Amino acid sequence: MSDPGLRDLPAVHELLAHPAAAAWADRVAAPVRTRLAQELLAEWRQRLRSGEPSPAADAGGLHEYLGRALASRLEALWRGGLRRVINATGVVLHTNLGRAPLPAAALESAAGLSGYWSLEFDLVSGERGDRSELVADLLRALTGAEEALVVNNNAAAVLLLLSALAAGREVVVSRGELVEIGGSFRVPEVMAASGAVLREVGTTNRTYAQDYERALTAATAALLKVHRSNFALMGFTHEATLEELVALARPRGLRVLFDLGSGALAPEFVPGLPEEPTVSEALGAGVDAVTFSGDKLLGGPQCGIIAGRADVVRACARHPLYRALRVDKVTLAMLAATLRACLHPDRARAEIPALWMLARPAEELARRAEALAGRLRAALGPAADVATQPGASLAGGGSAPARELATTLVRVRPAGLGAAEAARRLRRAEPPVVARVAGEALLVDPRTLDPAEEEPLVRAFAAALGGDAATRAPG
Ligand SMILES: *Cc1c(COP(=O)(O)O)cnc(C)c1O
Known about the structure:
Blueprint: H1 12-17, H2 19-22, H3 30-49, H4 62-79, E1 86-87, H5 104-111, H6 133-143, E2 147-151, H7 154-166, E3 170-174, E4 180-181, E5 185-186, H8 187-194, E6 197-201, H9 209-215, E7 220-226, H10 242-249, E8 255-261, H11 279-284, E9 289-293, E10 304-308, H12 310-318, H13 320-325, H14 329-341, H15 345-351, H16 353-359, H17 362-380, E11 384-394, E12 404-414, H18 419-427, E13 433-434, E14 436-438, E15 441-444, H19 454-465
Parallel strand pairs: 1-13, 3-6, 3-7, 7-8, 8-9
Antiparallel strand pairs: 2-10, 4-5, 9-10, 11-12, 12-15, 14-15
Helix pairs in contact: 3-4, 5-14, 6-14, 7-8, 7-12, 15-16, 17-19, 18-19
Residues 153-155, 181-182, 185, 226-227, 229, 259, 261-262, 293, 304, 398 line the site of pyridoxal-5'-phosphate.
């Protein structure tokens, strides 16, 4: 038997006729299957030309190997890119894992959306309405805002607010708040994109109300405060309060805008995060408009909310960018369901997963960690050393950066395997498990685990640390 060469590659029609690939014919049309087959063959031509070692044992096995490879690509295409993942990291709002896990009520309301809906239609008058009105009543009742508008995310909310209120004019911001969030949101760049002119004041660590005052000119449109939602400033620091900024702005007819980001509606929703500013408090301080994300401490779908004075919010709704940034009915339905749960904080903390996870008591987490450690010990035997240890969870995702939430971690030290390799195998389990790696151990934080996920998590660990090939997806 010789190594496979270029001449051994099957033709496209031969590859498509392989039984494993042909089994997809009723779900995937011929042009799509052909495109995938051509792509696969092109990669193999390249591979064989460059003399790369081939995983197909020999020339005769190549057709069989490629037929199965094509079938597994069709399967991956069919399943799509989004996969359910078990988040064992203890980071509640994990940006790479979709931030806030959606509340069941939100998912139900999205699933119930078949047919037509009164998205922009006032059923009483028969006239055209605005889609944001569907949730505006809830937002008004929950935050004290006069009006509210919903857009695609908080970055869009800030962009729209600055474009509508301050294009071509100056906006005063503390140097301590020219932040970058998540790699692509940078305050100076968003401001430039909006057409507003940034007027920096103060220093990185200390900015006073007088610094803002000295920067005011005839060109000033607004004072902007930005929540340092993903880092903490400690030591020799000072910042102007929202009340001080309002006192400066009011008599001069200027606006105070607050990019709050994290978006807890009021303190009672996040009792474990006492330093976190909230929407109600900011509006209570007299701020003209607050912007925040729907999928951080509100715990709902991805969106951005502008809440505040009626004239400010209406100016945003009239701006042409709103048309480009607005949300669809699925997002609005999910947001409405999330806000409905917020009408009572007890229900919110029970029904909104992010809030429930943040509020889990340390004693409960300790019990869950002990129980989980026992199950892992039983399942892994000599393949790992399992113990519990005190630790900290994080709110994550641009909220409460300095606050560590007490938890109990399960430490799993694999016997015959590096921790990084074990973590890699866990990520390829079905369902994938994402755990923390610390030195030679994996750490599992029960805070972000639904009790129903413990069983599949234990199975994934057993398969990954036992080296069971079945858990690894075909390459
Ligand atoms: C998270 C955050 C943003 C970006 O919000 P997205 O919803 O990710 O677009 C902007 N500003 C602040 C202060 C934030 O915390």
